[in-house]
Amino acid sequence: MNNLNLFENLPEGFRLVENEIDHKLASLTVTQAFADYKYPVPAVPASHSSFMKIFHDFSEAWIDNAEKVGLVLTNEDYSAVMVLTPVDRSAEVDVVALGDKLAALETRAVGDNLTQIMQYIGKDEEELKFREGTVYIEALAVQTPRQGQKLGSKLMRQLFKEMDEQDRDVFLFTNTERNAAIYTHFGFETIKKHTVEELHSTTWFMLRKAEKKA
Question: Domain ranges in the chain?
Fold first, then answer.
């Protein structure tokens, strides 16, 4: 059972992650989509087997948490996953702990940077004020072979349709300028931008306000 009643009608071709098989395969998609994401610097070594094990464990914990406090959507072949939670969620996965684990590997610099970046982000999020009912897109993951097929756009547009009808704002953050531009196209505005010069990391905190219907 999830704590978000967001969709009167789920996007066509998508459903809730509800059982153990869904959970494992959705977690695998999240791992594949973000394992080589240039989040800290210079890039996560996705070929590092120890890193992949830690990152997959993290992805499973992430999905498990989202099922408890929010909801997770996926399609029939698990090639696209959207993770949604309340912006004031009561529980969350400890990303800093992931950074600490990575710091113990050969990827020490990556782990240390990830830990520091997430600490900065955590402080920034605490300063932001949101309307009651605001929804947080924690992740939108699409497997590489299916990217460019509008799967993410389909999910986003249906989510926004429902959120406008419910008068809910939508929040997310991204660490790439390309993604920030894409989200701007979907109606998000940058409400804060934070650059950590020593880590070569910039974070865009973005909000899409519910559009009032005439």
Answer: 14-208
* Pairing assessment for the beta strands 189-196 and 170-174 based on DSSP bridges: unpaired
Cβ count near 118 (within 10 Å): 18
Measured CA to CA, the distance from residue 109 to residue 11 in angstroms comes to: 40
User: Sorting pLDDT into bands at 50, 70 and 90, what band is 116?
Assistant: confident
d(CA 26, CA 197): 34
Helix axis angle, 49-69 relative to 95-103, nearest 10°?
170
146 burial type by CB count under 10 A (0-12 exposed, 13-18 middle, 19+ buried): middle
CATH architecture, domain 14-208: 3-Layer(aba) Sandwich (3.40)
Cα 61 to its chain centre, rounded Å, is 13
Q: What is the pLDDT of residue 24?
A: 93
In angstroms, the CA 45 to CA 64 distance is: 25
Three-state DSSP at 75 gives: strand
